[in-house]
Clathrin adaptor, mu subunit (Leucogyrophana mollusca), 454 residues
Amino acid sequence: MAIDGLIILDGSGRPIIQSGYTAYPPAYPLLHIDTLNNALAQVSRESDVDPVLYVGPGIGESLAGSACCHIEVGGGLRMIASISGDEDPLVAFAFLQAFLEILQDYFGAVSTATLRDNFDVVYQLLEETLDSSGHPLTTSPNALRDIVLPPSLLSKLLASVSPSAPTSSSGRNTGGSFGGNGTGAAFASPIPWRKAGVRHNHNEILFDVVEEMRGIVGRNGVTLVSNVWGKIESNAKLSGTPDLLLTFTNPNVLTDCAFHPCVRLQRWTRDKALSFVPPDGRFVLAEYQHTSPSAVVSHLPVPLALKTNIDIGEFGGTVHLTLSSRLSTKELDNVEVELYLGDDASGAQCTTSSAGTGVGSVGGAEGSWSFDSRKKALRWEIPSMRTSGSWVLRGSWTSKSKTPRPAHAVHIRFDIPAYNFSSLKVDQLRLSGENYKMYKGVRGRSLGSIEWRW
């Protein structure tokens, strides 16, 4: 079995894009849409909805139950992949993520307006990425750009074809030739992921090592779980057919690796080096997991500390949070602390301060706080946390219920520029097959999402 189809819903839960469900009754996709909308309506927080929802038969006895796999795109949009039979839901989620990255590569920000303005391009992408039997096809943005022209490039090409262009004796227009960039050119190269005859004025390749930590810290401040996933994002602008060899000073920090099809697996297994002919443009070279190298400490340390003092009373409560950094050389940027106050929360009043000064602030270094009436959450945002000092949030909240039920966990998100949890270091990058000199750039970035229980 395979993926039954794909649906994109707008912020109100109505479908705006839908693949063809040719082998199913017309009401089949509506069952999945209704199942997801009903599940979202029954919870106060959208994150409480399971990513895989069971969908009953609903249409006669011949059609068995199925599953609705969904992800949140942003801006209220949601993508659904319906599956049936014995299909692994991970296949559906992998396709949803791949299609989302394709849309972001084509349009930048994905929104309802963007999808509606580019219906033709989106449906062409659906036809090329998912066949009528529900099996994924071409999901590489580099290859798709030669098959489905991006909106900006399509507009330029159409504008270059003049209505009064000369015609040949057979009556065909010869004013604009699409043969060099047509569908046939996408499959003319002997390397599936790279076009033939690529030329650039400046030859360079850039690597972004992006790592994300997800962890849970107990009430006593002890880290219960901390996992780090990373990926090496690349942007290659190299002429010809370059053959690259990328080596690391500490490749042992990479475990459970998944590589782009261009990587030669035998070379990695033997030498722990990445040998590959890169696609042209942006691509993900590798994904991996990093675990603690110490046999004594099984979890990676969380780069910040939080002290909580939350008292729950009648019709509300008080909150006192103290946040500090554990890093000695790097600053934490875009720190966001969120506390869910319960379904009946009606408002909050807080002040922020830094380094124990007790001076209230609205948008300075101490950060700014807000109460999200829709999510019933208290949010504290700090633009940058230095390596020393502490940041304090004090306040209270009110509730319509006599016995408020806030979440017993604080969610913390942060960015650390020019830093990697794994300390992965690139040793060198060698070029063969071409005679030019290239520029190599490497930078790191880390993200964090921590659940701190109290």
Summary: DSSP finds eight helices and 21 strands in the chain.
